[in-house]
Amino acid sequence: xxxTPSTSERTPLVQPAYVFESSISRSYQKRLRNFQCFVCIVLxxxxxxxxxxxxGYNLGLETSALENEQDDNTTxxxxxxxxxxxxxxxxxKPSAAWMSEHPSSEAVASAVTAGQEALAARRKLxxxxxxxxxDTPAARxxxxxxxxxxxxxxxxxxxxxxxxTRVLANGTNPSLREGGVGVGPATNGSFAEPAYCRPPTEPxxxxxxxxxxxxxxxxxxxxxxxxxxxxxxxxxPPDYGDGISxxxxxxxxxxxxxxRDVSVTVHRPSYAHDTTFTVMLAVWGQFVDHDITAxxxxxxxxxxxxxxxxxxxxxxxxxxxxxxxxxxxxFYQDYNLTCMEFVRSAPAPTCHFGVREQLNQASAFxxxxxxxxxxxxxxxxxxxxxxxxxxxxxxxxxELLPPSTDPNDGCNTVEMTAKGRYCFxxxxxxxxxxxxxxxxxxxxxxxHNRVASALAALNPGWDDDxxxxxxxxxxGAQMQHITYAEFLPAILGMDVMWALNLTLQTEGxxxxxxxxxxxxxxxxxxxxxFRFAHTLLPxxxxxxxxxxxxxxxxxxHEMLFNPYALYLARGTTLSVSxxxxxxxxxxxPHVTTELSNHLFERPLVLNIxxxxxxxxxxxxxxxISLNIQRGRDHGLPSYPAWREHCGLSRPKTFxxxxxxxxxxxxxxxxxxxxxxxxIDLYTGAxxxxxxxxxxxxxxxxxxxxxxxxxxxxxxxxxxxxxPQVSFTMEQLQEIxxxxxxxxxxxxxxxxxxxxxxxxxxxSATNPLVDCKELPQPDFTPWKVPGPVIPAPKKPSKKxxxxxxxxxx
Length: 808
What we know:
α6 (279-292) packs across α11 (464-492). The longest helix is centred in the N-terminal third of the chain and has 52 residues, at 22-73. The model is unreliable at 1-30, 51-74 and 795-808 (pLDDT under 50). With 808 residues, the chain is mainly alpha-helical. The protein contains 22 helices and 16 strands. The relative contact order is 0.14.
C-alpha cells in the first residue's frame, strides 16, 4: 500500500486511498471525546436550567393560586373577616340546665294545679274584657299578625305551663342568671299539649311533594324542625326580666327606656336614598318573610283582639305589654296619648317546664306558602278543583285574587263594600297589608295558573291533583331561585355568598343537604334581624304611568290595607311600575315618619268613581317602637351578645362602639341607654356602619346563618340530587331561567318594559328591555309519556314510608 504524503503536503487528500497515521488518530479521538463530554455537560446544564425554570414557574403558579385562593377568602372587608373564622351554620349556645334541684313529684303536681288554676282565672278575666275597637290602627296591627284560631289552645297550654314553672322556681329558689330557669322536667301531658310533644305515631310518607305544614321534611325530626305551629329556634338563651317569661329588663334589673323614646331619639327620619336598589327589594323581602314567619299574637275570649291601654288596670289582660308614651312626645302629645297598644306574642308549648318561647305559625321553608297556605283547610279553599287551578276573580279581561268578604278582616271598609269592592284572599292572611304586597300575591297566583295551564297542555292525562302539586312544586323552586339569585346577593353581597356557600349552581345538582341542620326560623331573625327592611321604605312612593307619560307620588301609609287600586284597569301595572321605579331608603337607623307616626292609619281611598271616598281616623302607630318592644317581649339578649355570637368584638363600654357605629347614631344611643348591655338588638344592628355595603356585620351574620340553614337544611331544596324529590336535569335548567322580572312580565299584560333585575334600579348594566326579551322557562321537560299516578291526598298503606331514626 502506498504511503500518503507527509504532513507538509498541501493537498493530502488528493489520493484515492489514504489512511491516518496512528498518532493522529489517537489525538482526534481524544478531542472527539472531549467534545462529546462538553456537549453532554452543556446538555445537562441546559436540562438543569430548564428544570429549575419549570419548577420555579410551577411553584410560582401554585403560590399564585394559593394567593388567589387566599384573596378569594379575604375579599371581604375587614369588618366581616371574623365571620370566616366561624363554623357555618353557626352553633347556638345550649339552653341552661334546670337551675335547681330536681323537683319532687308532689311539687310538680302542685305546680301543675297552680298552672291550671291560673288559666281558669285568665279565662274568667277574658270573659269580662271589652275587645279592641275594630276600625283602629291598633286593631289593624293585630289583624296584620293573622293569628289562626288553632293557636288559642296552644297558647293557653303554654300559659299554664309557664305559670307552673314560676311556682316551681319560687319553691326551689333557683339562682336565676342569663338563660333563666333553663330546661326543666318534661310536662308529660300535664296540659293540653300538641302532637310534637309526643313521639310520632305515623311514619313519614315519602313523596316528591312537600307537605303544606313542613312535617316530614326532616325525617329524624318530622314534627318539629321547620314545621308550622312550633316554637321559634333559640340561638342564645333568652334574657327575661324574671328569668322565666317577663320582658327583658336593663342591666341590674333597671327599667329600659321606652321603645318609643328609643324610636324618637335614635330612629328619627332622614332622606338619604340608595339609588342602587328599588322598592321591589323590600317587597320581595316581605313576601319571603311572610312565607317563612308568622308570629302568633295572644288573643282574648273567642280569639278576640285585646285592648291594652284601658284606664282600669284591673281590666288589663296579662298578655298586655303596651308602649309608654312621653307626655311631651313630639307627635302623640297632640292627641293626648300616653299609651300605645301592644300585645305580647303567644307563648308556645315546649313540652317541659322552663322559659317562655314563641310560636311560628308558618312552615320555615321557602315553599310558596304565601300562595298556597300552610293549612289544608285554607289551601283547599283557594283551589278551583279543576285543572290544578287556583280560584280567581274575573274583572273584565283581568283576573284578581278571590275577594275576602269578611267585614272584620281588618281591611274591608263599609264604603268600599257598598261599591262591591273587597280586599282579597290569598295563601297568607297578611296579603292586604300593603298594595305592593297584594300585587305580589296576585302575580304569583297568576303564575301558578299559567304554569298549571302549560303542564295541562303537555300532559292531558294529568288530573287536578297532579297539575296542582307539580305547579306548586315549580313555584316553590322558582321562589327559592329568585331569593338566592337576586335578593340575597343584594343584601349580603356576592363575596359573602361565596364565602358562606350560599351561591347557586349554574348547572347540575347539589348534595349539600344535611339532615343535622335545623332549618327552623330563629327567634331573633323574626323578631329583629329580618325587620331591617322596614328602613328601606321611603315616605313617598313614585308612581310612573309610562302609557300616559305621567309621574306622581303617594304617601306610604296611604298604601297600607288599601288594595283597591287593583280594581282599576291599569292598577296592577301601576303598582308594579312604582315598585321597580322607586329607590329605597338607605339601611340605617333612620325611618320615615310614614311608619313611625302613621302606621295603619286609615288612608284616603283611591278614586274608583266620580266621588272620592274619604274616612278620617285616629292617628297611626309607630312600627319601630313595635319592633323594639317585640324584641323585649321575646327576651332577645341585648345587641353586644349577638356580636359575640357572630365572632365579632363584643363592646363592653360605649367607647368600644366608636369604630362600630357612626358618630351621630352613637351619640344618640349614648343619650337614651344607660348601659351598653341595654342596647336592643334591632337598634344596635341598624346603627352599625355598613362600610359601603347594604348591611352591617351583625345583620349580615344573622341573616346569612338563617338563609344557609334554609338551603342546606331543606330536604326538598330545588337543586338537590336526591332522586326521590329532585327535578330532572332538564327541568332544573329551565327553572334556572327564572327571574322575578320574567315572572312579573309573564303575568302582567300591560307592562311593556322592565329592567332584567327588578330589585336593582335601571342602569347601563341593567337597562330597560321589552318584557318579551326576558327569558322564560320552557315546560317541555315536564312532558311525561303515558298515564301518571295521581298525587296522593292522604297516606296509604302502599306508600313508601320511612321511620324516624330518633324520637322526640
